[in-house]
């Protein structure tokens, strides 16, 4: 799993998540999340209830071979979960979450973040209508 490029990839993941967090701040209620083996951002509604997840989760990375995921938790608002799953029937079940790979993120090489941030903003706009 680990290679000489792994530290660079981890650093890049943290940079991507930090850029997303700062890009969403002010427009959404962003809740940074970090624990051993995971760095993520939760997006919450006006009442502080989480409805979206974006993060790098070591356990999922080690199982799937891909580090950056986004999605919803199955216990969150039923309308949001249903809307997300209708849009993403391919979402992977993992520890109560339903997650999709953020493949457009420039995780393995340097590159612009606009495709990734655009994807997440599109997902948030779509779920906001749920």
Q: How would you describe the overall organization of this protein?
A:
It is a single chain. The protein has 130 residues and is of the alpha+beta class. The chain has one domain (6-128). 39% of the residues lie in helices and 28% in strands. The protein contains four helices and six strands. The radius of gyration is 14 Å and the shape is globular.
Q: How is this structure best summarized?
A:
The chain is α+β, with helices and mostly antiparallel strands. It has one domain.
N-to-C SSE string, H for helix and E for strand: HEEEHEHEEH
Query: Which sheet architecture does the biggest sheet show?
Result: 6 strands, antiparallel
Number of strands: 6
Mean pLDDT across every amino acid position: 88
Parts with pLDDT < 50 across at least 5 consecutive residues:
none
- Which percent range fits the helix content? 25-40%
Provide the fold topology.
Layout: H1 6-24, E1 29-35, E2 38-44, E3 50-57, H2 58-64, E4 68-73, H3 78-87, E5 92-94, E6 97-101, H4 114-128
Antiparallel strand pairs: 1-2, 2-3, 3-4, 4-6, 5-6
Tag the structure with descriptive keywords.
4 helices; alpha+beta; 39% helix; 6-stranded antiparallel beta sheet; 130 residues
